């Protein structure tokens, strides 16, 4: 996989520092039908035109107000002179892997900061190596090379949580993303890949940069847009949290029609080790997280995912597997464990576990009756992208 180099002191560098800030421009993208209706009503139009605009920007993926031809030319011009724009974030840079994975730098209208989003096709192995990289519209490159895919979405620029093994943590929190910036990543990728919503199997994982539950309102607003306006199913969405208990408690109150599935970054066998690798554990230890998760009313057959990053020598020993199995069993939750071998990053003081340690760990959990999944090598690529910062000076070249 093409992975741009990362420097130890990597910083967020605007891709285009001269990009004019949006200033007083107003974005339609990010508003729900009701708010769009209000905006149109304020422009002297009937409220139902909000539905036309929603259809255009969320379903037809039109990025230019001029292109919304269900509105009269006069109305479009009036909206533009009222400083309205579609205002959807756009893909500025693409990094393509041989296996079809694409990583995007996506930039909003009014901010030079960019975020990362990842497209991970998971077709059969026969397609491997077929992908042509580059900037061309992938859907135009000779047909479909995937039969299902996952989009990894960011919720913040940087992250405040400070997990010791994570590259994104090194940035600190730069800012929250708005609902439009979160949902916009998805719609931009759906457009690039020519995805037909309702037909193609596309999953979303909120596992990119940031901690979704520390940007809760915007995150859930984005989910409601993605479900209500874009037409995606919340049962094909998974949100991952480092264990922000108040966020999990709010999440437990969300109606099932808009509640994604839940993944918890467990990442350690007990509180002692977890507090070391995830200092947030001192605030919300494992049992507090489990208590909160137990409040979520799971749908039939739904399971909670525990993500477990294997850190060589630190969390990958057989005794740790036994502890994890006990934790998961004692939680009483229908659960599965996703094992991820740690992906190295400069300046991050851990080591990747040996293949043998990973396999031994997986077997030990399985033998204890815990459903356990190991990311394929390709999946490792995926996680190399998710939850890690890679934007550097080199990326701009
Ligand atoms: N902030 C949220 C979601 C983004 S991180 C969370 O922490 O859950 C997504 C996943 O990537 C988490 O499970 C995290 O533990 C994992 N991760 C972070 N850095 C990693 C690394 N270097 N190698 C492998 N997985 C990593
Ligand atoms: Fe933030 Fe998640 Fe990285 Fe922890 S693992 S620092 S919560 S992005």
Task: Record the SSE blueprint.
Elements: E1 26-27, H1 33-42, H2 49-59, H3 73-81, E2 84-85, E3 90-96, E4 102-107, E5 114-121, E6 148-152, E7 156-158, E8 173-176, H4 179-193, E9 201-206, H5 216-230, E10 237-241, H6 245-252, E11 261-265, H7 271-277, H8 286-294, E12 304-310, H9 318-331, E13 335-341, H10 355-367, E14 372-374, H11 377-385, H12 393-396
Helix pairs in contact: 1-2, 4-5, 6-8, 9-10
The structure holds S-adenosyl-L-homocysteine (SAH) and iron/sulfur cluster.
Task: Please tell me about this protein's structure.
- The radius of gyration is 21 Å and the shape is elongated.
- α1 (33-42) crosses α2 (49-59), α4 packs across α5 and α6 packs parallel to α8.
- The two termini are 17 Å apart.
- The protein has a ten-stranded mixed beta sheet, with helices on both faces.
- 31% of the residues lie in helices and 18% in strands.
- It has two domains: 26-85, DNA polymerase, domain 1 (Orthogonal Bundle); 90-382, TIM Barrel.
- The chain has helices at 33-42, 49-59, 73-81, 179-193, 216-230, 245-252, 271-277, 286-294, 318-331, 355-367, 377-385, 393-396, and strands at residues 26-27, 84-85, 90-96, 102-107, 114-121, 148-152, 156-158, 173-176, 201-206, 237-241, 261-265, 304-310, 335-341, 372-374.
- The chain has twelve helices and 14 strands.
- With 397 residues, it is of the alpha/beta class.
- The site of iron/sulfur cluster has 12 residues, from loops.
């Amino acid at each position: 996989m093409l992975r741009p180099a990362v420097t130890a002191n990597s910083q967020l560098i605007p891709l285009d520092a001269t990009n004019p800030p949006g200033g007083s421009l107003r974005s339609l993208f990010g508003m729900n039908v009701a708010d769009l209706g209000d905006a149109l009503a304020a422009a002297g139009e009937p409220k139902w035109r909000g539905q036309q605009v929603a259809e255009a920007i969320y379903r037809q993926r039109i990025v230019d107000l001029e292109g919304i031809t269900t509105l009269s030319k006069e109305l479009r011009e009036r909206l533009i002179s009222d400083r309205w724009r579609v205002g959807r974030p756009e893909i500025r840079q693409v990094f393509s892997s041989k296996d079809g994975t694409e990583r995007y730098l996506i930039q909003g209208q009014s901010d030079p900061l960019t975020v990362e989003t990842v497209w991970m096709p998971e077709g059969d192995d026969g397609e491997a190596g077929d992908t042509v990289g580059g900037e061309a519209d992938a859907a135009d490159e000779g047909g479909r090379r995937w039969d299902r895919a996952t989009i990894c979405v960011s919720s913040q620029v940087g992250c405040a949580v400070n997990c010791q093994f994570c590259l994104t943590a090194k940035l600190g929190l730069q800012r929250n993303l708005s609902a439009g910036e979160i949902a916009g990543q998805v719609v931009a990728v759906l457009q690039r890949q020519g995805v037909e919503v309702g037909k193609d199997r596309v999953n979303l994982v909120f596992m990119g940069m940031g901690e979704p539950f520390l940007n809760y309102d915007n995150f859930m607003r984005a989910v409601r847009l993605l479900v209500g306006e874009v037409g995606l199913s919340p049962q094909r969405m998974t949100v991952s949290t480092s264990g922000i208990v108040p966020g999990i408690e709010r999440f437990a109150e969300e109606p099932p029609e808009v509640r994604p599935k839940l993944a918890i970054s467990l990442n350690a066998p007990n509180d002692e080790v977890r507090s070391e690798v995830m200092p947030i554990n001192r605030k919300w230890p494992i049992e507090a997280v489990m208590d909160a998760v137990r409040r979520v009313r799971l749908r039939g057959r739904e399971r909670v995912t525990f993500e477990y990053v294997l850190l060589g020598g630190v969390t990958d020993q057989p005794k740790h597997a036994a502890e994890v199995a006990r934790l998961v069993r004692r939680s009483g939750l229908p659960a599965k464990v996703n094992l991820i071998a740690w992906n190295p990053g400069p300046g991050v003081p851990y080591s990747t576990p040996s293949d043998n340690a990973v396999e031994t760990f997986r077997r030990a959990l399985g033998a204890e009756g815990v459903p356990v999944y190991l990311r394929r090598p390709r999946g490792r690529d995926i996680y190399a992208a998710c939850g890690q910062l890679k934007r550097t000076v080199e990326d701009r070249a």
